[in-house]
Amino acid sequence: MKSEKEKMLFGELYNALDPELSQERLRARLLLKQLNDSREDQTEERINILKELIPNAGEELWIQPPFYCDYGSNLYLGDKVFFNFNCVVLDVMPVTIGSRTLMGPNVQLYTATHPMHYRERASGLESAKPITIGEDVWLGGSVVVCPGVNIGSRSVIGAGSVVTKDIPADVFAAGNPCRVIRSLENQESD
C-alpha cells in the first residue's frame, strides 16, 4: 500500500494532512522563517539555510527573501538560479528549473491542484502535476505557472502572464492565458 507521500509524488490523489507530509511542511516552514527573517548582510547564514531547505540546488542559488515553498525537497534547480522578492513555489511534485533561469518578483509556481468535482474536492484529497522550466528562461514579475506546465529553454514570459499550457523554447510569450507572441531564435542581443 502506498504512503500518502508516495501518492503525492506519483500525481495521485493524496491526503495533505498526513502526519509525515505535515512534518515535512513544518520543517520547511521553520527554515523559511529563518531565511525570511535573515538580514541582507547574513549571506553565509542564508546560503546554509538554502542548502538545508533545497538540497537539490546547483551552485550560486540566490533567493531574495521573502520566499515561500511547501517542501523545498521537491525543487531541482540548476546553477545560478535567481528568485526575486516574494516568490511562491508549491512544490508538491517536482519543480525542475534549469541553470541561469531568472524569476521576477511575485512569481508563483503551482504544482498542486484540486479535483474539479465538488464532492471529490470536499473529501480533502488533492493531487499535483510537475513543472519543468528550461535553462536561461526569464519569468517576468507576477507570472503564474500552473500545474503540469513545461517552459522551454531561453524563453521569456512577460510580466503578469498566467501560463496554463506548455511554452516552447526560444519564444517570447505573454498574456492570460499565456500565448506565444514571437520567436526569439536568431535574434541579436537587445
Automatic annotation (TrEMBL):
Q: Which residues form the Maltose/galactoside acetyltransferase domain?
A: 5-59
Query: What Gene Ontology molecular-function terms does this entry list?
Result: galactoside O-acetyltransferase activity
Q: Which UniProt keywords apply?
A: Acyltransferase, Repeat, Transferase
Query: What EC number(s) is this enzyme filed under?
Result: 2.3.1.-
Top-level taxon of the source organism: Bacteria
Which InterPro entries does the record cross-reference, listed alphabetically? Hexapep, Hexapep_transf_CS, LacA-like, Mac_dom, Trimer_LpxA-like_sf
Concerning its family, UniProt says: Belongs to the transferase hexapeptide repeat family.
Q: What is this protein called?
A: Acetyltransferase
Per the UniProt entry, what species is this protein from, by scientific name? Rufibacter immobilis
**The organism's lineage?**
Bacteria, Pseudomonadati, Bacteroidota, Cytophagia, Cytophagales
